[in-house]
Each structure stands twice: as structure tokens, then as C-alpha cells.
UniProtKB/TrEMBL annotation:
Protein name as catalogued: HTH gntR-type domain-containing protein
PANTHER family (alphabetical): HTH-TYPE TRANSCRIPTIONAL REPRESSOR NANR (PTHR43537:SF53), TRANSCRIPTIONAL REGULATOR, GNTR FAMILY (PTHR43537)
InterPro entries noted in UniProt: GntR_C, TF_FadR/GntR_C, Tscrpt_reg_HTH_GntR, WH-like_DNA-bd_sf, WH_DNA-bd_sf
UniProt cross-references to PROSITE patterns, sorted A to Z: HTH_GNTR
Lineage, opening ranks: Bacteria, Pseudomonadati, Pseudomonadota, Gammaproteobacteria, Alteromonadales
SMART domains for the chain: FCD, HTH_GNTR
Keyword line: DNA-binding, Transcription, Transcription regulation
Molecular function terms from GO: DNA binding; DNA-binding transcription factor activity
Naturally occurring in which organism (per UniProt): Pseudoalteromonas translucida KMM 520
NCBIfam families per the UniProt record, alphabetical: PRK03837.1
Domain HTH gntR-type residue range list: 12-80
Domain of life: Bacteria
Residue ranges of coiled coil: none
């Protein structure tokens, strides 16, 4: 009998084999969260591979959020957080931003994402959350003359909005999205006038959220994103 092979046998690196086996053991509960993995020397003996393969495997698991590597300590099993998941996308996303229309696509992503957040905030924000957003707005107003500080307080204002639903994944996505877009923003010599308008946009968004105006908040956010894209990225 002859066999018809439809695809070649996949050749894996030794480190990938180690990574897959350790990941299987972690996900199936054979190694529990918080447990320390065996030493590198013991892992080398168990898998019959060299130190580079073990270190590459552990580094790959760390990128997945499955282990934490600390200098001078044994590697321990962890569980991936929302931040871990998003950070895995960071490199690819920053590369995508440099491609034709990349910035335009991320602008559209921001519109879809923040539109839902601001609508939720306008309909569901508690008095304490509105107070926190007002405090973020005040910080933003005090930093208009400093581009570096304005960027930080700008992001913080939007981050407070992203925190209102209480979903950690939303916060992680928002942080990553802002990091990617800020990295892509060209340097400007004088941004004071731009910052003033952005601050005024924030005031308008805040007032709509405070007053429970869902449609108004969404419209003000859309106008704000239009302004930012046309003036900060042009």
C-alpha cells in the first residue's frame, strides 16, 4: 500500500516542542498558577535539550502571559491578563500603522470603540465616575501649554471614560490603541492652539455625559476625533 502525503511533515524547533508541552501542562492544570517551574538545569534534563532551547521556550510562554520570569528566582506559572493579550498585538499593530491607510483604519477603529464607550458613559455613569471624569478634565485644562503633559492628561481623560463600564479588557484595548496612535502622531512645534480646541472638545463631551445626553456625547466625540485626525496627524 502506498501513502499519498498531502503536506510535508512539520519540523519544529526544540524550543517549540518544550513550549508546547509546558503550555499543555499549565492549561490542563498539571502545573498550577503560582507554582514554580523546575530549574533550567532540571528542565534541560527532563526534555533532553540545551539551555538556549529552555530559555527560548520560557520566553515564549512569558509573552503569552503563562509564566513570569524574574532574575534570580524560579520561573512561576501565571495567568494571562487583558494587558498581556493586547501587548502580543502591539508590535504588529505599530507596523500596520506605517502601511498605506494604516492610520486611517486605526482612526476608524477608535471611532467604533470610543463611540460605544461614550454612549455607555452618558447613559450609565455614576455620580462618583462623573466626578472622576471632571477631575481628569481639570488636569487636562492645566496642561494646555505643555504638549507632553497635555498628551498625558488627554489620554487620562479618555481612559476614565473607558473605565466606566468596569471591563478590564476595554481598558487594555484603550491603552494599547492610545499608545499606538500617540506613537504615530507627528511632532509639532507649537500645539497650544490645537490643545485648547481639544480641551474644549473634552468639555463638550463631559457636559453631555454629565447630563445623560447619549446622542450628544456621541456627536461631540465624533467631532473631536475629526479634529484630532485632521490637525494632529495632517
Amino acid at each position: 500500500m502506498s501513502l499519498k502525503i498531502t503536506r510535508p511533515v512539520e519540523r519544529k524547533k526544540l524550543s517549540e516542542t518544550v513550549e508546547e508541552e509546558l503550555e499543555r501542562m499549565i492549561r490542563q492544570g498539571e502545573i498550577s498558577e503560582g507554582d514554580a517551574l523546575p530549574s533550567e538545569r532540571d528542565l534541560m534534563a527532563a526534555f533532553g535539550v540545551g539551555r538556549p532551547s529552555i530559555r527560548d521556550a520560557l520566553a515564549a510562554l512569558a509573552r503569552k502571559g503563562l509564566v513570569k520570569i524574574s532574575s534570580g528566582e524560579r520561573t512561576r506559572v501565571t495567568r494571562p491578563s487583558a494587558d498581556t493579550i493586547i501587548s502580543e498585538l502591539s508590535g504588529m499593530s505599530k507596523d500596520f500603522l506605517t502601511q498605506p491607510n494604516g492610520l486611517k483604519y486605526f482612526d476608524q477603529l477608535r471611532r467604533f470603540f470610543e463611540s460605544s464607550l461614550v454612549r455607555y458613559a452618558a447613559s450609565s455613569a455614576t455620580p462618583s465616575q462623573i466626578k472622576e471624569l471632571g477631575e481628569a478634565l481639570e488636569l487636562n485644562s492645566k496642561s494646555i501649554n505643555s504638549d507632553t503633559q497635555f498628551r498625558k492628561t488627554d489620554i487620562y481623560f479618555h481612559r476614565v471614560i473607558a473605565s466606566i463600564p468596569g471591563n478590564p479588557i476595554f481598558l487594555a484595548v484603550h491603552q494599547a490603541l492610545m499608545d499606538w496612535l500617540i506613537d504615530a502622531r507627528p511632532e509639532r512645534v507649537n500645539t497650544v492652539e490645537l490643545n485648547k480646541q481639544s480641551y474644549n472638545d473634552h468639555v463638550a463631551i463631559f457636559e453631555c455625559i454629565k447630563n445623560g445626553d447619549v446622542e450628544g456625547a456621541d456627536a461631540k466625540l465624533s467631532a473631536h476625533i475629526d479634529y484630532v485626525f485632521d490637525n494632529y496627524y495632517d
